[in-house]
Amino acid sequence: MSVADRSPVEVSWFAALCDDDYEFLGVPNPDLASSWPHCRDITLAADRNGFDNILLPSGYALGIDSVAFAAGVAPLVEQIELLLAVRMGEMHLPQLARQLATIDQMLDGRLTINIISSDIPGEALESEPRYQRTREWMQVLRSLLNGKSIDFHGDFVNLTLDPPRVRTVSGKCPPFYFGGFSPAAKDVAAEFADVFLTWPDTVASVGETVAEMRGLAEGYGRELRCGLRAHMIVRETEDEALEAAELLVSKLDDEVGQEIKSRSLDTQSAGVARQNALREAAGDNWFAEPNLWTGVGRARSGAGAAIVGNPDQVVAKLHAYQDVGVDAFILSGYTHQAECDLVAEHVLPRLNHQPIDWS
Length: 359
Fold this sequence. Notes:
- It contains 11 helices and 13 strands.
- By secondary structure, the protein is α/β, with parallel strands linked by helices.
- The protein has a single domain, classed as Luciferase-like domain (TIM Barrel, Alpha-Beta Barrel).
- Helix 3 (93-106) packs across helix 4 (127-145) and helix 4 runs parallel beside helix 5 (183-192).
- The two termini are 27 Å apart.
């Protein structure tokens, strides 16, 4: 099957705003710490290399602020969309709507939004109320960005006001990308998300998740697209890719890796538990199935596996995920700028990729 014969898929990269860039996993390098110049350079490399979108992650203890970074980099990028991560409940909701609409204008309409439902720094909620807060915030934020007046009185949002004058370029709310694996998270995604994001897993398991989520969305009378967040290690030969994977973890102390994982606000989530189980079942070589290597998860709380191989193997793996219903990929690699160049050279031209059409 030729590239043109395949359905389009959105291919995004990852800007390491959350102190997640390494030459050797678990060994901090000041030159790779999250900063304005470092993350700007990753973003501009992804833009130059032709990626469709780029995730700007949000953390509190780690890295730099995603909203401030998006506003700073927006005038510098030429074609790429920005997938801006925002934590529900962290900001004043009407102000967040104004900020997002303004950044969308700065991008000429190329903003997408990654909804984060983890705890607010300094606070902790059980899963059910936390996702209820996320549900209310998503509902009201979408209304404000659609230019609608609000008269909403819920458990976490109590607002009566008109929408801000500033509007997005399209006049509509940018699409919401959202991930979560608890029953409450999946229900929120089915009702309010536009793209459900899942983490690396076997092809069969990802296919089951896609089918489940599309079925849940149908229950709300909606259609839901699905995306996969994964790391990449692609080299000209399989042996070189395996050597790169081994080199990445060659200096990792498992106690240090566990400490890095514990810094995240989502360490107890159902999704992280699934990543841990995938890694534990992989065996001594850390491969859960061909070309799916879970070694990254030894020092990372979120997406914990990489697609590893030569260009033919990596492209075939991405196509396999696409064949079970994945509409979008959010990819990354270590170091993020170097792997961005490698993926752009060896993989991107062989995918029928383009931003998702929301018209």
